[in-house]
Amino acid sequence: MKKHNFSAGPSILPQSVLHKAAEGVVDYNQSGLSLIEISHRSAAFVDIMASARNLSLELLGLQDKGYQALFLQGGASMQFIMAAYNLLENKAGYLNTGTWSNNAIKEAKNFGTILELASSKEANFNHIPKNYAIPEGLDYVHVTSNNTIYGTQLHDFPTASPLVCDMSSDIFSRALDFSKFDLIYAGAQKNMGPAGTTLVIVKEEVLGKVSRNIPSMMNYKVHIDKESMFNTPPVFAVYVSLLTMQWLIDLGGIQAIEKENQRKAQLIYDTIDQSELYIGFAAKEDRSAMNATFTLAAGADAETFGQMVKDAGINGLNGHRVVGGYRASMYNALPYESVLVLAEVMNEFNRKG
Amino acid sequence: MKKHNFSAGPSILPQSVLHKAAEGVVDYNQSGLSLIEISHRSAAFVDIMASARNLSLELLGLQDKGYQALFLQGGASMQFIMAAYNLLENKAGYLNTGTWSNNAIKEAKNFGTILELASSKEANFNHIPKNYAIPEGLDYVHVTSNNTIYGTQLHDFPTASPLVCDMSSDIFSRALDFSKFDLIYAGAQKNMGPAGTTLVIVKEEVLGKVSRNIPSMMNYKVHIDKESMFNTPPVFAVYVSLLTMQWLIDLGGIQAIEKENQRKAQLIYDTIDQSELYIGFAAKEDRSAMNATFTLAAGADAETFGQMVKDAGINGLNGHRVVGGYRASMYNALPYESVLVLAEVMNEFNRKG
């Protein structure tokens, strides 16, 4: 049966990418060797890394604007540390919009003073705080653009410089003026590739301003100087990320995928709003186009709904334990058709209920 | 043409592993979903991680002896930092046997005082220093078991506690009393799997003794408490490492592969020693069974040799720039047959020369 993969991450990748990646694991470009058993200094992989770095900047419209792209290891959790290691001298401001922001704050506190600019914690992070003050003199301001667990998304970004953003769960999904950001990082496993690599986009001029010694692996400058090959990179994850970015370019880039993502989100939110059986979790104005969170109204038969979801081949719809209910993650590679299947199941359940 | 892959790393993996890995990338266990697009919290991946952790301890004979196995990201270079973060309070002793030891020393200096116990740097690391003193009161002693670049290998380990060892390039290749070590780490990309994950084996009792705050991603205890899933692990790299460990178990484990590795090493070193055309780089008593380094005698026709090597389908034989010449890396997955092909080329060149 055809599967509809709503997994929150690691999450769906384009079928063409999966097939090409599998080919490369057995025999890369008819070389007679697997991509994962050749030197990362080989011409083949050096080209993959250079292409991936270039393409990420191209997709974001950041070529020739003083930015560097890196493919590192350790996920966003490692970037919580690296951002602070490289940029935090005294005090930074963090917007707290959920579990991951909270973790970013916790880790940064190892390196300096952290000011929580605003938080929606008291409302279980069901909205994005607004109209908060940003004091002068901060080393940087940190935000999380999309909150997978809660299904909220920043539609406006604070005016601050340097501005640091964890875009793990909505990178490459919508057009923004990315030149407003000085540091962007994103674990690959939502919109970009498999788990195991993290895209870091950094404006070089913000580096080199802290007084501490930075160990090499933590130091963005070291990775930039070594063209993202300071040590052996996660070859497979970078390759699959490159394939996924090429797939996105072929589709028409971020502008094209954003339209498709809006169509998908519209369908699911309309389905939620048209029935009293479904209760959206996130505040309407802060809804995420990536992750739609909802619960069933009291008294609804969750068991039947769960069975219908399963029978339709829908995978990964369970909500995170801190919110409960359901979460439809609709990353770039999820076809509109899959959202249609989910909407039909929801409408059918509504008719029955 | 059949390739013979002598790459120093990332390096050869068993063909059966590559094919099974490629299958998993398209459709994992007939689930209709790729392994790289499902949640790391899924039953499928939780089982992979648990099996990989157990199997690594089983292979090393360290089950039920107070050790924990972790599959982390960042390579040995990240472990240079993490080892020091977790164990270095005041002063540690490092044996300097090459570029990677040297890098380990450099990074650890960010966290405390490092005593170089001994070094063979003056001899371009062509041997392993011996008969050096280890003073009392060190937080730990750090050694590198195999030096890929130079082709040297520790055949005896210092008596010290805690003993930390970078086994990146010879893990799972030979039988040792692994319980002598308190911390072992190894980037996967030589004997264990693809680049992108690092095996860490740590004796729990050595942790928790430093006074500094340790950021979560740097903290072995955090990773142990979360069963190596503190954040999204590098799913594919862990899976391929598991497949490779299962392949090794099926072959008879470390004892069996050690015999095969000795056979391969014997053949290549005999070929070097039987001709005046080849000059072994490493001191005989310190020769590595993993990486055999040699140069051609003055006046030998390197171009012809290079062409003969190429014509035979031999890949990755160039030596590292700091040593020059040639390096035959003979990791676990390299068949004896490939070494035979190389030895025949070397003998043929010798007859011609």
Proportion of residues in extended strands of chain A: 15-25%
* Helical residues, percent of chain A: 25-40%
Overall average residue pLDDT of chain A: 97
The SS-based structural class of chain A is alpha/beta
Q: What name goes with the CATH superfamily of the largest domain in chain A?
A: Type I PLP-dependent aspartate aminotransferase-like (Major domain)
CATH architecture label name of the largest domain in chain A? 3-Layer(aba) Sandwich
Described by its quaternary structure, the protein is: homodimer
Q: Mind summarizing the main beta sheet of chain A?
A: 7 strands, mixed
Largest interface: A-B, 62 and 63 residues
Uncertain residue ranges of chain A: none
What is the CATH C-level name of the largest domain in chain A?
A: Alpha Beta
Which word captures the global form of chain A?
globular
How many domains make up the coordinates of chain A?
2
Fill in the CATH topology of the largest domain in chain A.
Aspartate Aminotransferase, domain 2
Please give the order of strands in the largest beta sheet of chain A: 2-10-9-8-5-3-4
Helix-strand pattern of chain A: EHHEHEHEEEEEEEHHHEEHEEH
CA-atom Rg of chain A in angstroms: 21 Å
* Number of E-type strands of chain A: 14
